[in-house]
Amino acid sequence: MHQPVSPNPTADAKLPYSQGMVARGEMRTLYIAGQVGTDANGVVAPDFEAQTRQAWTNLLAVLDAANMKVTDLIKITAFLTDPADYAAYGSLRTQFLAGAKPTSTLLVVKALARPEWKFEIEGVAMTAA
Question: What is the domain count for the chain?
Fold first, then answer.
């Protein structure tokens, strides 16, 4: 089982992520490769929001294939290519995490591996073995 860690519970309760996560016991760990806004047919969504929705959908599909759910995520790392997309990212993140609060890192980068990609997300999930 995993449990959030908070050095300041009152202030940290307002955050949409956990400061730390402790895993105990025999666990099954899933490392999720970077997911981008490309669908199963290789079509890249046209704009940031559509790409972000598709990337989250892809990440959730990997979780599902491993018989895990969004609440099993303990760490996500997201990459944006434009800081102006921060608000849209935050809104979509909230929708897809549905109350789950994994540890999180958000980076704004100059570019991703392909010039049409505007968003990428990777994660780590854990559940009881």
Answer: 1
